[in-house]
Task: inverse folding
């Protein structure tokens, strides 16, 4: 009788326990990773100084309306709050670990984007017709 | 109110440009609450695999709705968005698995086979690992306020979801074929199957389409379409409520009114999620209260009616059961009665032969065929003769009853004069009447004809029986026999000044073994079969026989009515 009960318990309830355990472990790990450690990358466009940098322009992907811009890929735990608010005036990765600054180049532009040349503001890569 | 939670203003502005927050709340919260309420209610009422798996489906759905809503609310911050978003695929996969599990237990009434559970876990495992490692969401796009999914890893769960949908369709199809002869079961299978499959297809198509379209340039705000996939849950709940009300699945006595009122309250209450004006909120509150109060009254009265109807149905079932038992008992009684009749018939036949012999030899002794007999011997022989004669009548009565009951009574119809027949019977009984000191009068119109087509011998037996009864039960006075024309009939009326019959006895007098309560005072040898046989014979000759009496001590008259056209 007892053996049967245990056997019945195994068969019918093990599946629920496994699912609960799996979800809990995954959930706890993600919570720790994303919320405590903020261990993920943030991609964000920041204003770009066309006089000294190669800048992107043309994307209508967001309501972000600062043009021209450069792309920043930074670990979330390194990123200042102003990055997400799009309020950093002159953000630079200089001196920061896990921070990548992408300036406009043929390799990095996506659909509808184009690049501005440096000091003379000349357009030199255009992807708007693709 | 919402502003209180806003961490990132940029994302808040981005969200409200993209979709009305009220619509977002309306699509997520009421459906999630309805699912939890329904799943919880079923689990509270019934504890079995189906109710547990259904509750887990509802729980997964509500959790998914919550996390999805959080991931929409990117203004809470990128960390929270990433956390909520990262778990969506895994929760959805478990929800699909448990929806299939629920469907399986509902349709088959059995637990999901172990190999199917193991297989399901194996195919869900990669997503579990990717989610655990965070590989499905590597980057947060702060420009769009959303996570960037890894395309290859995100498409895998959609493939698995599709497999669960196909498995569900296959399961329903197989079980539908299996229950070919049980229409009710097939209908339930179709309804449960349809509910679950529609729910999964709605959910899958919206999330899958959104994912596919987000990679194209179909629309800027492609995730807006995701919210329509959630309406598969109300569909599933609708199907389940119908099954609970109509087919009493889960053995729950939920009435339609309850389901209707709860749905109404949820629908009205959910308007708070998108209505912002104070006056509108007041109106919704009043509507909610009034609907709730009317609903409670409606539920109480409908519940009472349902209970009464169920009680009547229960009584009807009991009545049917009792009727069936009565039919069986009645048949058994009929069989026993037939066996008894056959036995009586057999016994009577066996008695008749020796009786005839005894009566014959007694007659021979009395007639002197065996020489001179002494007075004492003559007296004894006379008693033997009379007794066997009486006994022969009784045996004949039993034989007639047996024949009637077995349907073996045969009638030989001939044309004869009824008046002559009555007269001959009276003549035969005259010695007895004189011996009893009674007067007998016979009145019939001498100029009229009384020709009739009937079984003469049996009719004679009946008339003799009626006159004999009058003689037996009339201690003193007279017997009057009248033969008259009455409309299209002949009426033979035998009237006496005898002991009479009480009104209570009259209806039973022509039944088997029925005798008047005061009959034994004057005649103890009656079998109670004579009038029963008389009635059967007269009825078989298309006639009627009945008795009239003013009561005990007031005489009686037997009337035999025979159709002249017979």
Result:
């Amino acid at each position: 009788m007892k053996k049967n009960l245990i056997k019945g318990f195994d068969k019918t309830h093990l599946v629920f326990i496994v699912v609960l355990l799996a979800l809990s472990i995954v959930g706890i790990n993600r919570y720790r990773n994303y919320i405590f450690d903020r261990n993920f990358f943030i991609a964000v466009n920041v204003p770009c100084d066309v006089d000294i940098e190669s800048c992107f322009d043309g994307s209508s992907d967001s309501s972000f309306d600062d043009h021209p811009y450069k792309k920043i890929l930074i670990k979330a735990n390194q990123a200042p709050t102003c990055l997400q608010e799009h309020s950093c005036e002159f953000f630079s990765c200089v001196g920061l670990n896990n921070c990548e600054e992408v300036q406009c180049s043929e390799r990095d532009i996506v659909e509808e984007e184009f690049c501005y040349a440096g000091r003379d503001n000349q357009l030199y890569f255009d992807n708007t017709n693709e | 109110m919402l502003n209180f939670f806003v961490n990132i203003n940029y994302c808040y502005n981005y969200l409200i440009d993209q979709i009305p927050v009220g619509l977002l709340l309306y699509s997520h919260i009421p459906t999630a609450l309805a699912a939890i309420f329904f799943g919880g209610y079923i689990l509270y009422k019934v504890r079995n695999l189906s109710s547990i798996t259904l509750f887990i489906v509802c729980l997964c759905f509500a959790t998914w709705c919550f996390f999805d809503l959080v991931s929409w609310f990117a203004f809470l911050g990128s960390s929270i968005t990433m956390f909520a978003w990262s778990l969506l695929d895994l929760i959805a996969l478990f929800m699909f698995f448990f929806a299939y599990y629920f469907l399986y237990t509902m349709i088959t009434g059995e637990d999901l086979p172990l190999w199917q559970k193991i297989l399901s876990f194996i195919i869900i495992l990669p997503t579990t690992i990717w989610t655990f490692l965070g590989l499905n969401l590597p980057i947060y796009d702060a420009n769009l306020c959303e996570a960037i999914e890894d395309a290859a890893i995100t498409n895998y769960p959609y493939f698995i979801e599709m497999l669960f949908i196909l498995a569900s369709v296959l399961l329903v199809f197989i079980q539908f074929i299996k229950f070919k002869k049980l229409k009710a079961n097939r209908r339930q299978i179709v309804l449960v199957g349809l509910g679950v499959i529609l729910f999964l297809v709605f959910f899958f198509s919206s999330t899958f389409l959104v994912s596919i379209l987000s990679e194209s340039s179909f629309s800027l705000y492609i995730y807006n379409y995701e919210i329509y996939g959630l309406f598969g849950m109300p569909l599933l709940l609708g199907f389940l409520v119908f099954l609970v009300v109509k087919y009493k699945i889960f053995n729950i006595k939920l009435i339609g009114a309850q389901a209707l009122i709860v749905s109404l309250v949820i629908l009205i209450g959910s308007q708070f999620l998108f209505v912002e004006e104070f006056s509108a909120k007041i109106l919704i509150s009043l509507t909610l209260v009034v609907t709730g109060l009317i609903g409670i009254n409606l539920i109480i009265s409908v519940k009472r009616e349902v209970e009464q109807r169920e009680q009547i149905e229960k009584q009807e079932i009991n009545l049917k059961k009792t009727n069936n038992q009565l039919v069986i008992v009645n048949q058994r009684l009929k069989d026993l009665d037939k066996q008894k009749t056959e036995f009586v018939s057999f016994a009577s036949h066996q008695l008749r032969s020796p009786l005839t012999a005894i009566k014959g030899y007694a007659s021979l002794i009395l007639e002197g065929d065996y020489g001179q007999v002494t007075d004492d011997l003559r007296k004894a022989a006379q008693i033997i003769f009379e007794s066997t004669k009486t006994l022969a009548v009784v045996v004949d009565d039993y034989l007639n009853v047996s024949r009637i009951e077995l349907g073996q009574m045969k009638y030989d119809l001939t044309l004869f004069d009824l008046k002559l027949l009555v007269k001959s019977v009276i003549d035969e009984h005259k010695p007895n009447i004189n011996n009893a000191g009674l007067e007998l009068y016979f009145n019939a119109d001498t100029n009229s004809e009384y020709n009739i087509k009937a079984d003469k011998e049996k009719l004679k037996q009946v008339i003799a029986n009626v006159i004999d009864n009058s003689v037996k039960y009339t201690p003193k006075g007279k017997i009057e026999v009248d033969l008259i024309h009455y409309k299209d009939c002949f009426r033979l009326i035998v009237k006496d000044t005898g002991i009479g019959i009480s009104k209570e006895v009259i209806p039973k007098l022509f039944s088997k073994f029925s005798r008047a309560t005061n009959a034994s005072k004057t005649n103890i040898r009656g079998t109670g079969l004579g009038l029963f046989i008389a009635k059967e014979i007269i009825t078989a000759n298309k006639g009627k026989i009945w008795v009239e009496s003013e009561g005990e001590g007031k005489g009686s008259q037997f009337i035999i009515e025979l159709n002249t056209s017979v």
Observations:
- The radius of gyration of chain B is 48 Å.
- Chain B is about 65% helix and 10% strand.
- The longest strand of chain B covers residues 478-486.
